[in-house]
Amino acid sequence: MASIALVTGAAGGFGRELVKLLLQEPGLDEIWCVARSKDKLDALRGELGEKIVPIPLDLTQRDSLTALQARLEGERPDLRFLINNAGFDKFGPYDAVDVDTSLNMIDLNVSAVVALGLTAIPYMGRGSHILNVASQAAFFPLPYMDLYAATKVFVRHYTRALHVELKDKGISATAVCPGWMKTGLFDRAKTGADKTVRSFAGLTTPDKVAAKALRDAKRGRDMSTCGLFVKATHVASKLVPQRLAMKVWTLSQGIR
Ligand SMILES: NC(=O)c1ccc[n+]([C@@H]2O[C@H](COP(=O)([O-])OP(=O)(O)OC[C@H]3O[C@@H](n4cnc5c(N)ncnc54)[C@H](OP(=O)(O)O)[C@@H]3O)[C@@H](O)[C@H]2O)c1
């Protein structure tokens, strides 16, 4: 039985850094890498080697989730790491994003996380790990990034509760809450709106955040934060009234 990791959104950004670290994990035979772009996944295999198994799928499509389920059922691997990382953001007011794009964001950031977790847990044994990528955006309601922040609240709460439920099975579930990281997310998030997110305090590189996330998962933590800025935001979320926090956020983005 092959020992594997499954990483979504593995073609670039944060996912790619996680894949690189997983290659150093002892005993992993394969890393199943999911993203839409076959070319990018093939390039990843070319660069990182034959443990990389490209699985080009659009996770907002029900057929893709069924295909992954069938593959797991067919191969019955020992799934050591499930990393639900694929996600996207949109910057701007509520009406800068149409209904289809909004629902597509919920499909990827929320529904795919739930569907993959439920599908994968039967293949996970004691000592295995689920990492669901939430965000620092899960700590407060965020105007001009309203829906994205709300999807990440879902991921954070769902994952922490799942962690408690999975304790008996010896499986950890970690809500990874990165602050701003230099990745392709920014380009895809632009909408051309005047009132938009434009200030990225605490910006860091995804490699450090990925290393901390894997360390926290292996320590059995239900949440992972990396760096002083994110940790301070987390503490503030317990102390600062949400209305005041939203005011500070919009002012920090130059929005009046
Ligand atoms: N960057 C940040 O500042 C930041 C901060 C906090 C949290 N996060 C979270 O970190 C995660 C990774 O984001 P990132 O920053 O690395 O962004 P990214 O560079 O845009 O990477 C997103 C990845 O998801 C894949 N993807 C996008 N749509 C998909 C779909 N429908 N089906 C399957 N795969 C899809 C992309 O590949 P294809 O385009 O080929 O599909 C890509 O591999 C996201 O959940 C994001 O919300 C990011």
Describe the overall structure.
The protein has 256 residues and is an alpha/beta fold. Helix content is 46%, strand content 14%. It has one domain: NAD(P)-binding Rossmann-like Domain (Rossmann fold), CATH 3.40.50.720. It has nine helices and seven strands; from the N terminus they run βαβαβαβαβαβααβαα. It has a seven-stranded parallel beta sheet with strand order 3-2-1-4-5-6-7, sandwiched between helices. Strand 2, helix 2 and strand 3 form a beta-alpha-beta unit. Helix 4 packs parallel to helix 5. It is globular. The relative contact order is 0.14. The model has no long low-confidence stretch (mean pLDDT 98). The site of NADP nicotinamide-adenine-dinucleotide phosphate has 31 residues, from helix 1, strand 2 and helix 6.
What's the helix and strand layout?
Blueprint: E1 3-8, H1 13-22, E2 30-35, H2 38-48, E3 52-56, H3 62-75, E4 78-84, H4 99-120, E5 129-133, H5 146-165, E6 172-176, H6 185-189, H7 206-218, E7 223-224, H8 228-239, H9 242-252
Parallel strand pairs: 1-2, 1-4, 2-3, 4-5, 5-6, 6-7
Helix pairs in contact: 1-7, 3-4, 4-5
Bound molecules: NADP nicotinamide-adenine-dinucleotide phosphate.
The site of NADP nicotinamide-adenine-dinucleotide phosphate has 31 residues, from helix 1, strand 2 and helix 6.
Could you give a short description of this structure?
This protein is of the alpha/beta class and 256 residues long. It has helices spanning 13-22, 38-48, 62-75, 99-120, 146-165, 185-189, 206-218, 228-239, 242-252; strands at 3-8, 30-35, 52-56, 78-84, 129-133, 172-176, 223-224.
